Amino acid sequence: MNTQTLLRVSLLGPLEVTVGGQPMAIGGSGKRALLATLALNLGTVVGVSRLIQVIWDDRPPATATTKLHGHVSALRQNLVRLGGREAVNVLQTRLPGYVLCAHRTSTDLARFDELTRRGADVRLPEGARQRVASLSAALRLWRGGACVDVGSAEVAVVAAALDERRWRAMEDLAEAQLVLGDHNTVIDAMAPLVRQWPYRERAWEHLIEAHMRRGDIASALAAHDQLCQLLAADLGVAPGQRIGRLVSMIRVGNER
């Protein structure tokens, strides 16, 4: 059996597809939602009823099943047109729905998962360089918000969870970069992250620590003050214990 990758689906940004190295036009919103869902569930059968829900949300037409079969047929034709006879079995029919063959399909998401697992498996401080290498490579796979151009409410929920994994990987990377003394890089990454997602306390912690380790105590305390004001005004809470201990250490050191 030929197990060489034929179909490549990029999910970590606008949806992109290549077949045998050639770009494939995906088509309209229904086909995009179909292909994205199958790629997000690579190697797993996705039922017809779920695919109809993904494509049409809560408003499926009476002809939804027929239209879905038409989308599948069109995608198969494009696969065969670009990939030849080898592409016939890439998109398979299996009860109760359809599946993308994992042996012939690759996704940037699968590669991201592999690299982030590799980064998580190493311990700090001794594994800092290996973690930085793995997570930097993982984050370079992103080209924007996950599946940003797939107009499906269900795909949007999955995409939001993928984006969250991206932000966590950025925080994990910053932790390793702090070990290596790469404080400026941490500031450059965490400052825009907390502007976009202001309740991410771990990102704030890395930002405050990077300012401290760079010797910029004023900026470290200013960032902490900004976080305190934000959390108090929006949520009625104070920062967690980790940030509290970090700032106490900064203030004690600054008084010496």
Could you describe the 3D structure shown?
The protein has two domains: 7-106, Winged helix-like DNA-binding domain superfamily/Winged helix DNA-binding domain (Arc Repressor Mutant, subunit A), CATH 1.10.10; 146-255, Tetratricopeptide repeat domain (Serine Threonine Protein Phosphatase 5, Tetratricopeptide repeat). It is built from ten helices and seven strands. The protein has helices at residues 29-40, 48-56, 64-83, 108-121, 128-140, 153-179, 183-196, 201-213, 217-234, 241-255, and strands at 7-10, 16-19, 22-23, 46-47, 91-94, 97-100, 105-107. The protein has a four-stranded mixed beta sheet with strand order 3-2-1-7. A hairpin with a 5-residue loop joins strand 1 (7-10) and strand 2 (16-19). Helix 4 packs antiparallel against helix 5, helix 6 runs antiparallel to helix 7 (183-196) and helix 8 runs parallel beside helix 10 (241-255). It is elongated and about 70 Å long. The mean pLDDT is 95.
